[in-house]
Design goal:
Oligomer: heterodimer
Order of helices and strands of chain A: HHHHHHHHHHHHH
Number of strands of chain B: 15
Radius of gyration of chain B: 24 Å
Structural class of chain A: mainly alpha
Shape of chain A: flat
Largest interface: A-B, 30 and 40 residues
Largest sheet of chain A: none
Shape of chain B: globular
Largest sheet of chain B: 6 strands, mixed
Chain lengths: ~290, ~425
C-alpha cells in the first residue's frame, strides 16, 4: 500500500517534471530574479551592480515618462478592448448566418490574425503616410481633406496605433465567438422566435448572456494583449513623437535594451507584473461567478 | 547494444567537429547592420567571401544583425552571455557605451608598427572624431556617411529657379522653398519645398543645423552636452519655423523611411537625408536630381554618421590579429571603392578616391564627391556615455518642439538638466 502510493507519487511528479522545468526556467526564476534585480543598480562592465534598496522605485515614482506610458497604456486598453470585442461579436454574428460566400468572408476576417504583426504594421505605415499614403489619397479625393500626419502628431499617433491593433485583434477573437455561437442550441432561439421576440431581444436576452464565458476568456486575453503587444509600435511610431505612443512594455524594452539600464528596467517589469496579476485576479474573482449559466 | 551505438555516434560527431575546426586556423564572427536600402548586405557578404577565398586560413562568419539598434543589442547580449563576436560594425556614437560596458578594446594593441600608425592617420579626421577617445583608437570607420541635400532639378526649373544651383544658406533655403511649395486654392499642398525627416532620431539632421550655427552638442570626452546653448535653441527655432512660419515644410514629425519615396513622387522638391541613400536615389529618381552640401548659417556644417568596426574583448590574440588584418583589407582602396559604389557610403580614406575605379565613377556621377568634400566642415556626431539614453532625451525634446508641445528654450533646458543628471557621474 505504502509502496504503490510512493510509486504513484513518483510517477505523478515525473509526468509533471518537463512542464515544471520549463515553467520554472522561463517564468518563475526570471520573475524572482527580476524582483531581486529591481533593488540593485545596473551593472556596467566597469562597475558591478550594488544594492540600492528602493532607489529604483523612487525613480519610477518620479519618472514622468513612466506615468506617461502608464496613461498611454490605460488609454490603449480602453481603446482596444471594448472596440475589438464588440467588433468581433458583430463579425461572428455576421459570418455565423447563412450568407453567400460565408467561408470567404470568414477567411477575410481572419486574415489579419494570420499576418505577422510586423508585416501588418508595415502595411499600415503605408496607409498612414502623409502625402501619398492610402488614407490621404482616399480622404483627399472624397472630402478634399488636406494631408494629415496621423503618426507624427502626438494627438493622433496613439489612436492610429489603436486602430491597427483593433483591426488585428478582432479577427482572432471572432474565431472564439464563432465557436461559441455554434455551440448555442438552436432550440432556444427557435423558442424565442415562436414567442415573437425581436432579433434585438434574442441577442440581448439569449445569445449575449450565453456568450459570457467566451467574453470573459476573450477579455482576459485582450487585457493581456493590450500590455503585451508592442511589435507594431517599433515599426509605426517608435514610441514617438515625444513618447506620445509609447506603451509600458515598449518603454521597458527601451530602458533595458537601448539604454541598457537593466536595473531600472527590472523595476518597471515588476510594476508591469503587479499590474497584470492584479487585473487577472480581479477579472476572475469579479466576473467568474456572473458568467456561467447552468 | 544501444549504448555502444550511441557512444560510437557521439565519438564520430566529436571527431568530425574537431577535424572541421582544425581545418580552419582562425574562426571569426563578424556582426554587421544594414541601415539604409540598397545592396549593403550583399556587398559585405561578397567582400567577406572574397577575403576568405584569398585567405583559406581564416574563416569569417559574417552575420547580418538587423538595424544598428538591433546590432548593438545583439552584440551586448552576446557578450554578456559569454559569446561575443570578435568584430562588429556598430554605430560610431556607441563608442562610449561599449567602453563603459567594457566590451571593446582599442585597435592600438595590434597597430604597433609605424606603417600601421600611418594607416590610422589615413582616415578622414572628421570620421576619427567619433572613433578615438583618451588617445586611443576604438573604432575604424567603415559604413560612414554624412547628410546631404538632394534636389529635384525639374521642380527647380518649373519654379523658375536655376536647376543647377542648390540653396547655399538658411535664408536661401527658405526663399527657394517658398517658390517650390505648390498650394491650391484651399491651401492644400501638393509639393513642399523641403523635407527634413524627424521620426525616430531627429537629432541627427538637426545636428547639421546646430553645427551650421556654430554649436557643438557634446564635448569630445562624452561627458557633457550643450543642449541649451542659445545657438542650439536658434537652430531648433529655424527648423520649426520652416513649417510654422515659412510654411515650406510639412508640419509635425516627418517620417525617415518615406522620405526618399516622397522625393521620387514629387511631394517635396528638396530633401535632407543620408548620403547612404545616394545609390537608392540614383536608381529610383524618375527625374534629374542634384546633391549639395547642407546650407550654411555661420558656416557650412554637417554631422558624420554611420558605423565603425569595433574589436571585441574576449578573443584570442590570433583572432584579434586576423580581425585587424581583415579590417585593413576591407578598408583598402580596391574594396572600399566597391563598397562606396554599391551603397553610396563615403569611402573613409583619401587614397580610395584616387583609384581609377573611383575616378571613373565620380567622373560619371559627380554627386558622389559632395559628401567627401563636406567632410571638411563635418563634426563628430552627438555621442556621450549612456549615449542612447542621453540622445533619447534630446530626441524627445526635439519631438516635443517640432509637434508644438513645448517651446524650444524650455524643452532644451529640460533636456540639458536631464543629461547633466546622467552624465555627472562620468566627469
Amino acid at each position: 500500500m505504502r509502496v504503490t502510493f510512493k510509486r504513484d507519487w513518483i510517477h505523478g511528479w515525473l509526468l509533471l517534471l518537463p512542464a515544471m522545468v520549463f515553467l520554472f526556467a522561463f517564468t518563475h526564476i526570471p520573475a524572482v530574479t527580476t524582483f531581486i534585480n529591481s533593488f540593485y543598480s545596473t551593472p556596467r562592465g566597469r562597475r558591478p551592480a550594488k544594492f540600492i534598496g528602493l532607489e529604483n522605485y523612487e525613480r519610477l515614482w518620479d519618472d514622468p515618462v513612466f506615468w506617461k506610458v502608464m496613461f498611454n497604456n490605460l488609454w490603449f486598453a480602453l481603446g482596444t478592448i471594448p472596440l475589438s470585442i464588440a467588433l468581433s461579436i458583430a463579425m461572428a454574428l455576421w459570418v455565423n448566418d447563412k450568407l453567400a460566400g460565408r467561408s470567404l468572408v470568414r477567411m477575410a476576417y481572419f486574415t489579419p490574425t494570420v499576418l505577422p504583426l510586423i508585416a501588418v504594421a508595415n502595411i499600415w505605415l503605408f496607409f498612414y503616410t502623409p502625402g501619398f499614403g492610402l488614407f490621404d489619397q482616399v480622404f483627399g479625393a472624397l472630402f478634399g481633406w488636406s494631408s494629415t500626419n496621423w503618426l507624427g502628431d502626438p494627438a493622433t499617433a496613439l489612436n492610429a496605433v489603436i486602430v491597427v491593433t483593433v483591426w488585428k485583434e478582432a479577427g482572432f477573437f471572432m474565431i472564439f465567438y464563432l465557436a461559441a455561437l455554434q455551440a448555442i442550441p438552436v432550440s432556444l432561439i427557435e423558442a424565442a422566435r415562436i414567442e415573437g421576440a425581436s432579433c434585438w431581444t434574442i441577442f440581448w436576452r439569449i445569445t449575449f448572456p450565453l456568450l459570457m464565458p467566451t467574453t470573459l476568456f476573450v477579455s482576459i486575453n485582450a487585457v493581456i494583449n493590450s500590455f503585451r503587444l508592442v511589435d507594431h509600435i517599433f515599426i509605426l511610431t517608435d514610441g514617438g513623437p515625444d513618447n506620445a505612443s509609447s506603451l509600458l512594455l515598449f518603454y521597458i524594452y527601451e530602458v533595458a535594451f537601448r539604454f541598457w539600464e537593466t536595473g531600472y528596467a527590472a523595476t518597471l517589469t515588476v510594476a508591469l507584473l503587479l499590474l497584470l496579476s492584479a487585473l487577472a485576479i480581479g477579472q476572475f474573482f469579479f466576473f467568474d461567478r456572473k458568467v456561467h449559466y447552468k | 547494444m544501444i549504448k555502444s551505438t550511441f557512444l560510437k555516434a557521439v565519438a564520430a560527431t566529436a571527431l568530425s567537429v574537431s577535424t572541421w575546426a582544425s581545418a580552419h586556423a582562425v574562426d571569426l564572427q563578424f556582426y554587421f547592420p544594414v541601415a539604409v536600402g540598397g545592396k549593403a548586405a550583399d556587398t559585405i557578404q561578397a567582400l567577406t567571401d572574397e577575403y576568405v577565398a584569398a585567405n583559406p586560413d581564416v574563416k569569417i562568419d559574417a552575420v547580418y544583425a538587423g538595424s544598428y539598434q538591433d546590432t548593438v543589442a545583439k552584440a551586448i547580449t552576446a557578450s554578456r552571455g559569454g559569446n561575443p563576436p570578435q568584430l562588429s560594425v556598430i554605430l560610431s556614437v556607441d563608442m562610449f557605451t561599449l567602453i563603459d560596458e567594457d566590451l571593446i578594446q582599442p585597435f592600438d594593441n595590434y597597430l604597433t608598427t609605424d606603417e600601421d600608425k600611418a594607416w590610422v592617420d589615413g582616415f578622414y579626421p572628421a570620421f576619427m572624431e567619433n572613433s578615438q577617445t583618451g588617445g586611443k583608437t576604438y573604432g575604424i570607420p567603415f559604413q560612414r556617411s554624412t547628410p546631404v541635400l538632394y534636389w529635384n532639378k525639374e521642380a527647380f526649373k518649373e519654379a523658375g529657379l536655376d536647376p543647377e544651383i542648390a540653396p547655399a544658406t538658411w535664408d536661401e533655403m527658405v526663399e527657394f522653398g517658398n517658390k517650390l511649395t505648390k498650394k491650391d486654392a484651399d491651401g492644400k499642398v501638393s509639393q513642399w519645398g523641403v523635407r527634413i525627416p524627424s521620426s525616430g532620431f531627429p537629432y541627427w539632421l538637426f545636428q547639421g543645423l546646430a553645427i551650421e550655427n556654430g554649436a557643438t552638442l557634446a564635448n569630445a570626452e562624452g561627458n557633457k552636452t550643450n543642449f541649451d546653448d542659445p545657438k542650439v535653441v536658434e537652430a531648433l527655432q529655424y527648423l520649426v519655423d520652416l513649417s510654422t512660419k515659412h510654411e515650406v515644410m510639412a508640419p509635425g514629425i516627418i517620417e525617415w523611411g518615406a522620405t526618399p519615396k516622397a522625393f521620387f513622387e514629387g511631394q517635396t522638391a528638396m530633401m535632407w537625408t543620408s548620403t547612404g541613400n545616394l545609390t537608392n536615389v540614383r536608381d529610383n529618381a524618375p527625374f534629374d536630381f542634384g546633391v549639395a552640401m547642407l546650407p550654411s548659417k555661420e558656416t557650412r556644417g554637417a554631422p558624420t554618421g554611420g558605423g565603425n568596426f569595433y574589436l571585441f574583448k574576449g578573443a584570442s590574440d590570433e583572432q584579434n590579429k586576423a580581425a585587424v588584418e581583415f579590417v585593413q583589407w576591407i578598408t583598402a582602396p580596391a574594396q572600399s571603392a566597391k563598397w562606396t559604389i554599391a551603397t553610396g557610403y563615403v569611402a573613409p580614406r583619401a587614397e580610395t578616391w584616387e583609384t581609377e575605379t573611383m575616378k571613373a565613377y565620380t567622373a560619371d556621377f559627380a554627386p558622389a564627391l559632395i559628401a567627401r568634400d563636406q567632410l571638411e566642415f563635418a563634426k563628430a556626431e552627438l555621442s556621450t556615455y549612456q549615449n542612447q539614453r542621453v540622445t533619447g532625451i534630446f530626441n524627445d525634446a526635439l519631438a516635443s518642439v517640432i509637434t508644438g508641445k513645448k517651446d524650444a528654450t524650455t524643452a532644451l533646458k529640460e533636456a540639458q538638466a536631464q543629461a547633466d543628471g546622467i552624465l555627472s557621474e562620468y566627469r
